[in-house]
Amino acid sequence: MKLGCIGDDFTGSSDLANTLARGGMRVVQYCGIPAGPAGDDVEAGVVALKSRTIAPEEAVRQSLAALDWLRAQGCTQFLFKYCSTFDSTDRGNIGPVAEALSDALGGGPVVFCPAFPATGRTVYQGHLFVGDRLLSESGMKNHPLTPMRDADLRRVLARQTSRHVGHVAMADVAAGADAIAEAISRENDEGRPFVIVDAISERDLVEIGRAIPDMKLVTGGSGIAMGLPANFGCRAGGADRASGFARPGARAIALAGSVSRATRGQVRAHVAAGQPAFEVRASDVMEGRLDPETLSDWLLAQPGVPLAYSSVEPERVAENQERYGKEAVAGAIENLFAETASVAVARGAGIVICAGGETSGAVVSALGIEALEIGPEIDPGVPALKVGGRELRLALKSGNFGAPDFFLKAARIMGGGDE
Ligand SMILES: Nc1ncnc2c1ncn2[C@@H]1O[C@H](COP(=O)(O)OP(=O)(O)OP(=O)(O)O)[C@@H](O)[C@H]1O
Ligand SMILES: O=C(O)[C@@H](O)C(=O)CO
């Protein structure tokens, strides 16, 4: 293994694995830290953790354990993948995890670049944009667990770390790899080793990749991986990821525990397309009126691509949090989806489409999945996935990713949904 990656959630890890596969690397996504060694042919390993919103000390512990495993597989460069909207709080976990990984790897400058232009996330003058809005004016300001209310990444990161934060601005990035490398060294030499790097296009990301072949620790969204495969001699356009992937006729179910804007639009579009949809109400979950068996029975009795969703507007999420407690309601809904997936798969579902990072982490853990192979891309940042050794296909969609018809498109690509 050459490139060792640690993802702070499961959907984000599949987003990263997708980018690396597009760059020509043979990639496996591991769900948690594997017990044994990786296969000899794996060039990039992505260890998916569910560490984005847990206590910082625990996120650090798990990330260091993942690093140990990746080092034991022979990796020479490491990538810490977080969200392209820099999801975190003043306690972490981006700063504390990056600090711990950097220390373990002997220090030196570390790049921070969440840009992912294909999904509208760009970094300019140290500020993160979502489309034409500052992060702090995007839907992320209402995120249920990591509301992002400051778009200046230099300030956001500085609140999470004792390291000094530097910046490489667009003027240097636009001048290409050599200028970027020089600017990163300048920041580090002046005592600012944690360097936010601007990027507004894929070309910028490729140049940043070219500038950092020897940097031990790189951090960012999946976009930062665009330029890395070439440093390991890999070239885009290798294996056909679609060949032999689909499972025609498999039963597909969709589970949306994401409350992001894009998911809410996808739920509406699914309902408008006449597909079966079941609203999971927080009150029913919290007050014991809905259980996984009932939900799974409903899903398996429907034609097409049945969807169970708890996605509601931010005001209703806030009401639920107020009434039941933020962690309690989040955990109970995640558990319901996780156990529903487990029951539905045991009863014959062959395709599980899941929306939301936290939700996907819970579902994948409940399904006891250890490793995922990367199939064709469904939408930018979302690959179809194949479970090693099992006839099961998955899609793990980050909250804000995907076109309005995502659920139907995902089912079609994976072969299911009796359309
Ligand atoms: N109706 C609801 N009321 C309160 N909390 C909810 C509701 N529906 C879902 N949740 C919780 O909100 C959280 C949503 O996080 P999740 O990561 O799954 O989706 P997301 O934030 O939209 O996606 P991503 O992290 O990929 O951008 C989960 O913990 C989920 O259980
Ligand atoms: O980077 C992103 O936006 C996604 O991969 C993700 O991590 C969202 O949860």
UniProtKB/TrEMBL annotation:
SUPFAM superfamilies: YgbK-like (SSF142764)
Enzyme nomenclature, EC number: 2.7.1.217
Domain (Four-carbon acid sugar kinase nucleotide binding): residue spans on this chain: 254-407
Enzyme category, top tier: transferase
Reactions the enzyme catalyzes: 3-dehydro-D-erythronate + ATP = 3-dehydro-4-O-phospho-D-erythronate + ADP + H(+); 3-dehydro-L-erythronate + ATP = 3-dehydro-4-O-phospho-L-erythronate + ADP + H(+)
KW Hydrolase (keyword) present: no
Keywords: ATP-binding, Carbohydrate metabolism, Kinase, Nucleotide-binding, Transferase
Entry's family note: Belongs to the four-carbon acid sugar kinase family.
Protein name, per record: 3-oxo-tetronate kinase
Domain Four-carbon acid sugar kinase N-terminal, residue spans: 3-228
Role according to the record: Catalyzes the ATP-dependent phosphorylation of 3-oxo-tetronate to 3-oxo-tetronate 4-phosphate.
Source organism phylogeny: Bacteria, Pseudomonadati, Pseudomonadota, Alphaproteobacteria, Hyphomicrobiales
Xref: InterPro entries: 4-carb_acid_sugar_kinase_N, 4-carb_acid_sugar_kinase_N_sf, NBD_C, NBD_C_sf, OtnK
Superkingdom per UniProt: Bacteria
GO molecular function, one term: kinase activity
